[in-house]
Amino acid sequence: MASPPHTSKTLKLERYNSYLRRLHSTKVLNASSKLIFRVTLLIALVLILFFTLNYPPLSDKNPNHAHLHHHSFLSAALFTSSAGGDAWEKQVRHSSTPKKPNGLSVLVTGAAGFVGSHCSIALKKRGDGVLGLDNFNSYYDPSLKRARQKLLLKNQVFIVEGDLNDASLLTKLFDVVPFTHILHLAAQAGVRYAMQNPQSYVSSNIAGFINLLEVAKTANPQPAIVWASSSSVYGLNTQVPFSELDRTDQPASLYAATKKAGEEIAHTYNHIYGLSLTGLRFFTVYGPWGRPDMAYFFFTKDILQGKPIDVYQTQDKKQVARDFTYIDDVVKGCLGALDTAEKSTGSGGKKKGPAQLRVYNLGNTSPVPVGNLVSILEGLLRTKARKHVIKMPRNGDVPYTHANVTLAYRDFGYKPTTDLATGLRKFVKWYVDYYGIQTRVKKDSDINSEHPEESA
Questions:
Q1: What keywords were assigned to this record (predicted)?
Q2: What pTM did the predictor assign?
Q3: 362: which of 19, 53, 102, 231 is 20 to 30 A away, CA to CA?
């Protein structure tokens, strides 16, 4: 019987060839995967750049102002706090260099905010150097802040986008510019929001303020600092009008407590490091480019939309009243405080002598019941409000504010001149123009014909 054919060599050869084929396939697959990954990454980066430069953020709910963001994002891409470099430093220096002899060089924190934007433009128009700092947070619609930013850019005021708690950024700014003054207006605002997000108040109003003072104390020269306190520090005080000599140790809200803490912190840095510090207690500031979380602003919005508005009464059914202060008057007060601020006395973080420490009320001196505010808006908007009168909730709001401004008048001539009806007329005109609203709002000519004494 013949023996079977020997197949061992053939089997080994087939197994070896199979191994080579698998090895080749694996190499091809790995190479293809790397290529696909790199191509995908490149496409993703291109798409991100494209959408960043050509589309506004989702938070912008105002289609009339979508065009603002193209410029804003280009600015952010070129000049954000993380960019640095020669172009960034050139922009910072150009904005902060005064145009008039002996002009101020002012760092304005919260420059894209309501009071900050108005003060920045006023300073720039009179020839001072101004550099803004703002983090553009979303406490209210950031598109309004971006619109203010565009307005500031038209007035040659550059805003660095960054946070007060970024010590390296603040240090960099002081390395680039020897600021003579700081106008510190950045803060977490709002009494009621503190019940939802208390940590934001501690982070901004206390930690952020301390961080700014820490950098300022080591600057050479040390800047003089004017900063925003609040009428809220008077808290449960019942003695009216509110005077700077009244007690302020009974805050009614966390917001008020953080502002009172700021006043004590200012005292400490003045005492130890010789920083010149002036605190300004603002009383219910209102006007064009205002804050959407303020009553006059959302009352206007809701009245135009036919929505009901809540009008508060005190627990004993008395009207809530506020010392409404028009923005132009507050700006004059801020600039007066800057102009009369004495130089800080420290050097290298060490105090050389006593330094100026001040606090002032900036109010209108004429409290107006909130019901009267609503009546004025009804007349301007030619629309009846759907009022819902309710008792004031225990959320930190106080029933009454009234400023005594004797000290501010004595020291820098502060004298408010705008009554509520005039100020609201200017606000409503801005509001309908900004939001492109077609309404039956009274025109200036209509109002002047009814009140000819106001047209002078």
A1: Isomerase, Membrane, NAD, Transmembrane, Transmembrane helix
A2: 0.80
A3: 102
